[in-house]
Design a protein that fits this description.
The structure holds 3 protein chains of 3 kinds. Chain A is mostly helical. Chain A has helices spanning 2-11, 17-34, 36-45, 62-68, 71-102, 110-117, 125-136, 142-149, 166-191, 195-203, 208-236, 240-246, 257-267, 271-299; strands spanning 48-50, 56-58. Chain A has 14 helices and 2 strands. Chain A starts with a helix and ends with a helix. By secondary structure, chain C is an alpha/beta fold. Chain C has a 6-stranded mixed beta sheet with strand order 2-1-3-14-6-15, sandwiched between helices. In chain C, helix 2 links the parallel strand 1 (34-40) and strand 2 (66-72). Chain C is globular. The termini of chain C are far apart.
Chain lengths: 300, 276, 432
């Protein structure tokens, strides 16, 4: 009681823990009821040799041991990191760029541009994957057709057949599909920045870049860092687009961890091993998130 | 206000390039949906349909029976989005504005639930719903989608509340508002753009969710639009015109939701302006 | 604001409670009907779906008081769905089973032994190879519905034009492919290619590669003396990989992008008149005709060409019965009905998927069309594919190797194939 009063005196009526619990309790309840069991289930089966139906042989850490020694797993991890890094980078650049342009007061047809730029977000991953696979096709794809009609190339480019280009082709699709999410989130964040701040900065003689660094960036930072964190998480476990575009091929050029997880699980029916990989990814993402949080804290 | 005077030529060029990048594939989708099946297989490809037809759209509604899928999707997605937003706005506000024991742990826990690849979660989810007798019901899918979206939306809302200066609600508290009042009268209106964009996010994600909807609905009268789309993918051959028509129809509600929420952005802006 | 928020919350709760109240799983059992639950791939496809629903309605009409509750699932997520259902104890009475998942499903113990339900006559009416592939350890665990065996389909008009005979050996196939690869309009670029090579590392790609490798006499996986073995790494297998890679890298008879072209793209290419030959199932021909009606009468089929032998793996789609089903007899009656003679004959005419019952094959006039020659020969000579639960993984390994060789012609084929053999052996060791 005394403690409560102290808090009230210092920071106002708001900072009362009971009210805080009240506000988060519905969310907490949802998570406890729905998410905890699946999570534990996923972790537990990583210690079993199981097809999930009639075979549950406890194998302890056998799969973890096997995985740690598996060179191809590290290669998959490396590809996952590459995919994640460049996808998130590309999405962030486009999102920041377009969001900042789309809030400009003097930009004509703002609403039209905004509506066009968010379009990729509206189509499901499956459809986007199939569509781009078609566009990329070496024989009858639109891209090769356009490039050939313009006489830019003579022979068709096999975007998805070439181990050098395939990852970039996949990353491009992934950026195309994903940047609108961040853009919209940032657009919303930009709306909360007061116009007065910009005017003040301008009066102080700040240029465009300085205004961006000193006004815009701090203003959108909480949203930017959250979306970045979410994006990294999603990309790390992303599956659908890559699967529909390449199935992880050619050879292993786009075989990321999520494809490994899917293949070992639902192709090979070795759910224990599949789950081991998932747990690994899980741990890696936790570490990444902790790092990100730490960096954010040292930033502020 | 010199920002208003200069016409942003460079910005305009960038935005137009961006739109082109987006529109080329989208144009292809749209144009394909108006072609007859054989024309979608013509080589070289035709950039404009030689015979413009709405057959694909008719087929999507009649043969693939997307009509009922739309109804199911609307019920499931609208309800789950509303509930998600309610729950996660409260949680985001709570985490942003209150100091309490275990706050960091809560935010971490929220995130952790999102880190596990969803394929592995399929079976446990199915079991839970079966336990409650909710397989092949709207309510079952609604619950699943809420549990998917709440963690991310909580984080998004949390970060939006973080962008709103905290001295505002201290001032409001002095004016005699209680916490619920501050949440409703100060924080909520100010975070309206964030609320709108988070709602769009939740809506789109649930609308396009395929894997769980596929497994958790068993009869045609319960299937959602995304399931209908997924069923059109055949190992042998894809009827591109049908599929593109279905994708476009499926995205119309999303476009409407976006346009609606876009207006909220501006109302949020004015609200913010007044309060400032 | 306050009022609006409360209205929203209230209405949401209201609607939610309505659903909570009305969410009974299925109401039909209350009316005293017998409900048979069925999981099938057929109803999500066209034209299969319409006809399957017709059959089901007919069965229901013949059996008053019986309701068939049919759930559709696309083939590519069938295994995932069945596993999920089985792991949750929610398996339907009948579920789809095909040759490449039958071993896995049997291992789960979810397929009832159907042997006691079938008369000798009924058993012997099933095409022998199909019956064998439905049988594991002497138990018939799936009742077949239809089949879509692979054969080599080719453009009869182009073959006539160039004066070539349909190939019976792989050498003839390669030679024909070279002739078919040509610049038809004289603009200096090649317009049609000889062979639709499927280079993706997926089941349809690997299955077709296995057909070629087995033609050379090398088996990717087989069961002998109580253990699984592989012949990948043998001189014959090296020849096969060499041949496969030569099609692209030496003869240049495959279209650009062969490595990324799955079966799907190749069907498109055939419809676009860009390739002359393709290893395909009988049902694909109908889809090609739909996409390009001009091709009717211009496509023929021959059995898979051979090097030293020929190999057509069994392709079968059938039903398995849940051992916990309460309506086993009815279920059996249903599956027998679906592939009875009359229905099988109608089925092939609509869908191009071949009957698996000897009487239907013998009596179908439709199959007398020369278009089906290769497929019929395929049905008669089908061989059971390995049913090891880890067969999918072996195929992925093959796929990885042929992609490597297709990509880089300078690689040492023998060394790569031997490494592939070692990797397959490793898979065998890990799983037994």
């Amino acid at each position: 009681m005394a403690k409560d009063r102290k808090v009230i005196r210092h920071k106002g009526d708001l900072f009362q823990s009971r009210a805080g619990y009240a506000f988060i309790s519905p969310a907490f309840l949802v998570l406890v009821l729905m998410v905890v069991y699946p999570l534990i289930y996923g972790i537990v089966i990583s210690f079993f040799d199981t097809n999930l139906v009639n075979k549950f042989d406890f194998v302890g850490l056998k799969y973890y041991g096997r995985l740690i020694k598996d060179a191809s797993f590290y290669a998959s991890l490396g590809r996952t990191v590459m995919f994640t890094f460049f996808t998130v980078l590309g999405r962030t650049i486009l999102a920041v760029l377009f969001a900042n342009i789309l809030v400009m007061d003097n930009l004509p047809y703002k609403k039209v541009f905004r509506a066009i730029l968010v379009l990729p977000w509206f189509f499901p991953d499956v459809v986007v994957g199939m569509l781009w696979r078609w566009l990329y096709n070496a024989n009858y794809g639109l891209f090769n057709f356009i490039l050939r009609s313009l006489h830019i190339i003579d022979a068709p480019i096999e975007w998805l057949s070439n181990t050098d280009t395939v990852m970039w082709a996949v990353i491009l699709v992934s950026i195309w599909k994903g940047f609108p999410f961040m853009m919209v989130m940032l657009l919303a964040a930009l709306q909360t920045i007061s116009k007065d701040l910009y005017e003040a900065a301008e009066l102080d003689g700040c240029g465009v870049i300085q205004r961006f660094l000193h006004v815009t960036l701090p203003g959108i930072m909480p949203v930017l860092s959250t979306t970045l964190m979410l994006e990294i998480m999603w990309c790390f476990k992303h599956f659908t687009l890559i699967w529909n575009l390449t199935k992880g091929g050619p050879v292993d050029a786009t075989r990321v961890v999520s494809i490994d997880i899917y293949r070992t699980g639902f192709d090979y029916m070795r759910f224990g091993e599949s789950s081991t990989r998932a747990v690994f990814v899980f741990i890696i993402i936790i570490i990444l998130t902790l790092l990100q949080k730490k960096m954010k804290r040292s930033d502020v | 206000m010199s920002r208003r005077k200069r016409f942003p030529v460079l910005a305009l060029i960038i935005v137009i390039l961006g739109c082109l990048m987006v529109l080329v594939p989208v144009y292809w989708m749209i144009i394909t949906s108006f072609k007859e099946a054989p024309e979608t297989f013509s080589n070289p490809p035709t950039l404009w349909p030689t015979k413009f037809t709405l057959d694909a759209y008719k087929k999507v509604m009649d043969v693939y029976s997307f009509g009922s899928f739309f109804g199911n999707s609307l019920i499931v997605v609208v309800l789950s989005t509303l509930l998600t937003i309610l729950v996660s706005t409260m949680a985001g506000f709570g985490a942003s504005r209150f100091k309490f024991k275990g706050k960091g742990a809560f935010l971490g826990f929220v995130l952790v639930t999102q880190m596990f690849p969803s394929v592995i979660m399929l079976i446990p989810y199915f079991r839970i719903l079966r336990l409650y007798g909710l397989i092949n019901t709207h309510l079952g899918l609604i619950i699943v989608y809420i549990s998917f979206q709440v963690p991310l939306c909580t984080w998004l809302m949390y970060s939006y509340f973080e962008t709103i200066p905290k001295d505002l609600d201290a001032a409001a508290a002095i004016d005699g508002l209680n916490q619920w009042g501050i949440f409703r009268k100060i924080a909520l209106p100010l975070s309206l753009p964030g609320l709108a964009s988070t709602s769009i996010y939740a809506f789109i994600n649930s609308w396009n969710e395929f894997q769980f909807a596929m497994v958790l609905t068993t009869t045609d009268d319960m299937k959602t639009v995304s399931v209908g789309l997924g069923q059109m993918i055949d190992d042998t051959m894809i009827n591109w015109n049908d599929m593109m028509a279905a994708s476009i129809l499926a995205s119309i509600p999303l476009i409407l939701v976006f346009l609606f929420c876009q207006n909220l952005f501006f109302s949020g802006l004015t609200a913010g302006g007044v309060k400032q | 604001m306050k009022r609006r928020l409360f209205t929203i919350v209230l209405s949401v709760l209201l609607v939610a409670s309505v659903f909570a109240g009305g969410s009974s799983e299925s109401a039909s059992s209350e009316s005293g009907e017998t409900v048979l639950t069925v999981l099938t791939t057929a109803v999500t496809q066209e034209p299969e779906g319409t006809l399957a629903k017709e059959y089901i309605a007919e069965f229901e009409a013949q059996h008053p008081g019986v309701h068939i509750e049919c759930t559709g699932v696309p083939m590519n997520s069938a295994l995932q769905r069945i596993t999920t259902l089985a792991a949750s104890g929610a398996l339907p009475d009948l579920f789809v089973n095909v040759e490449n998942i039958i071993g896995t499903l049997d291992e789960m113990g979810i397929c009832e032994d159907l042997t006691p339900y079938l008369s000798e006559e009924e058993k012997s009416n099933i095409v022998d190879a199909v019956r064998e592939s439905c049988t594991i350890d002497g138990r018939i665990i799936a009742y077949p519905w239809y089949s879509a065996p692979n054969a080599l389909i080719f453009r009869t008009d182009w073959f006539e034009e160039l004066g070539i005979e349909p190939p019976t050996t792989l050498d003839e196939m390669a030679a024909a492919a070279q002739k078919l690869t040509r610049d038809t309009n004289g603009d200096g670029t090649i317009d049609t290619y000889g062979f639709g090579l499927i280079g993706t590392n997926d089941d349809s790609g690997a299955t077709r590669f296995v057909m070629i490798m087995r033609s050379f006499g090398a088996r990717e996986l087989y069961f002998e003396d109580g253990e699984w073995k592989t012949e990948v790494g043998s001189p014959e297998s090296i020849q096969a990989f060499q041949f496969f890679s030569d099609l692209k890298n030496k003869y240049g008879v495959v279209p650009p992008g062969a490595i990324e072209n799955s079966f799907n793209e190749n069907v498109n290419l055939m419809a676009m008149e860009q390739i002359g030959m393709l290893i395909a199932g009988s049902n694909s021909v109908g889809k090609i005709f739909n996409a390009n009606p001009d091709l009717r009468g211009k496509i023929g089929s021959v059995q898979m060409p051979s090097a030293v032998t020929t190999y057509t793996p069994v392709s079968m789609l059938g039903w398995s019965l849940n051992p916990e089903s309460k309506n086993k007899d009815l279920a059996i009656e249903f599956v027998k009905f679906m592939s009875n003679k009359e229905n099988s004959i109608k089925w092939v005419e609509t869908t191009g998927r071949l009957p698996v019952m000897k009487d239907a094959i013998a009596e179908s006039e439709y199959l007398a069309d020369p278009l089906f020659d290769g497929f019929i020969a395929g049905v008669e000579n089908m061989v059971q594919a390995p049913n090891a639960p880890f067969y999918a993984e072996v195929k992925t390994e093959l796929g990885r190797t042929y992609q490597k060789l297709l990509l880089d012609p300078t690689l040492d084929v023998a060394a790569e194939v031997k490494a592939c053999g070692a990797a397959i052996q490793n898979i065998i060791d890990n799983n037994t």
